[in-house]
Amino acid sequence: MLNPPAPLRRLRRGPLPLGLRRRPAGRAGRDADEVLRLARLSFVQFQAAWDRADLQCLAALATAPLLEDLRRQLAERGPGPNHTEVLHVEARLLALEELREAFVASFEFSGLIRERLDVAAAPFREVWLLADIKADGRGWQLAQVQSLS
């Protein structure tokens, strides 16, 4: 599992890296299940990019400050393979806000994850903060991850 400092990502109009789409405010309730499904998919995709040490993919999914932190963690981890098996993941949207410069969404993820093949799966609980910076037009990116367990 990733060890970044804290939470998640945010939604906006236009194409987003992991298939999230910005929605008119009135559709938010109807789109909640789809947003949570895509959040779970994004969680698994981000873990896979981390395992591969795929900096190009991580750069597309993370904000610049988080990417620098991930680079440091990958250097500490070393070149060996990493395997994260997500056995079960639940997602819950905690907040979705429009700020002056960005949209921000917070998700709580929980479930079962195995980080080494020779150990049993363990429960996890994290909050991810996603941000969609209005000025850069890159769409939703992971800004922070905070472990709660």
Reconstruct the topology from this structure.
Blueprint: H1 28-52, H2 55-61, H3 64-77, E1 85-98, E2 102-114, E3 122-133, E4 141-147
Antiparallel strand pairs: 1-2, 2-3, 3-4
Structural key phrases:
alpha+beta; Nuclear Transport Factor 2, Chain: A
Explain what you see.
This protein is α+β, with helices and mostly antiparallel strands. It has a single domain (25-147), classed as Nuclear Transport Factor 2, Chain: A. It has helices at residues 28-52, 55-61, 64-77; strands at residues 85-98, 102-114, 122-133, 141-147. Strand 2 and strand 3 (122-133) form a beta hairpin. The radius of gyration is 15 Å and the shape is globular. The N and C termini lie close together (12 Å).
What share of the residues lie within helices?
25-40%
Shape: globular
Structural class: alpha+beta
Helix run count:
3
Amino- and carboxy-terminal Cα gap: 12 Å
CATH architecture: Roll
Mean pLDDT score, rounded? 81
Radius of gyration: 15 Å
Q: How many beta strands in the DSSP annotation?
A: 4
What kind of sheet is the major sheet? 4 strands, antiparallel
Strand fraction? 25-35%
The poorly predicted ranges are: 1-28
CATH topology: Nuclear Transport Factor 2, Chain: A
Give helix and strand order, one letter per element, not per position: HHHEEEE
Spatial order of the strands forming the largest sheet: 1-2-3-4
Number of domains: 1
Can you summarize this structure?
The protein is 31% helix and 31% strand. It contains three helices and four strands.
